[in-house]
Amino acid sequence: MEGKAIHRCLHVIDLEKSLEFYEEALGLTEIRRVGAEDGSWVNVFVGNRTSGFQLELTWNRGRKLPYDNGGRDSHIAFTVPDYEAALLLHEKMDCVCHVNEAMGLHFIEDPDGCWLEIVPERAEFAPQGGIDVLDAMGRRRSVRSYADEPVPDELLERVIEAGLRSASGRGLRPWELVVVRDRAQLEALSACRDHGAGMLAGASAAIVVVGNPDVADTWIEDCSIVMANMHLEASACGLGSCWVQGRMRQAADGRSTQEYVVELLGIPKPYQLEAILSLGMPDAAFETRELDAHLRAKVHEGRFGAHRL
After folding, report:
1. Distance, CA of 21 to CA of 27 (rounded, Å)
2. Residue range 43-77, pLDDT digits in tens
3. What pTM, to 2 d.p., does this model score?
4. With left for phi above 0 and alpha for psi between -120 and 50, is residue 31 left, alpha or beta?
């Protein structure tokens, strides 16, 4: 079994001060937070689009004495695209605690005494191409049951961006995305199919993908690429998602799913519905699935029927 680092927990005395520090020093912003109903503790996860790794800042009510966050020898390292600019910023913030000129790096200290190593971007620090994508594919599921927890705005924006960056024939991008977060709209949207769309009622959000056939005759393929990319990014972000097919489907009230969604969301002609991606926080974790042997048998070498060894 292979593990993947996703976050490191740090205990903090002043949560707001720590949040301000990490945003100013490293551009880390709040992604989500959880806590006790009585307010005795709060966990805030911070990160940015540069890496999927997050810091979990844990605050406990009433704590006044400093925590032992692992000691200065157990630090967290961050790469920065402009090392000199980062050093100037951190010197201005008066948080630089050690500079190693020989190695070309420095350390800063957060409000709770945790040392953070700052190093310039180098080729050896770059992630190996394809690993994250394959991991997302291995963990991807059609998730139809969600926890009672909203999808953080930061993660929703990542899913949307994955759709916007999608390839399309001749770069025409004949698609449009309609993001639905209103609870009443989501419940109404769950009736867009006579079966297979009920999960939308419990979803935190949905993204409706429509295409304009007047712009490109490949609108179906282009919209499918958008859906696939968003589906994978949702998995990579730890979200639950499900592809709800809309084209050539029927609504619960007898209308076509196209007619139902067009009226519900005010989609103008000539846009055609391709599919809907439901999104929510999963209520269970998923392990990476091994690639089945029968799938390997679907790969042919040179001509159909000549299977690869």
Report:
1. 9
2. 999 988 777 788 999 999 999 988 888 776 678 88
3. 0.69
4. alpha
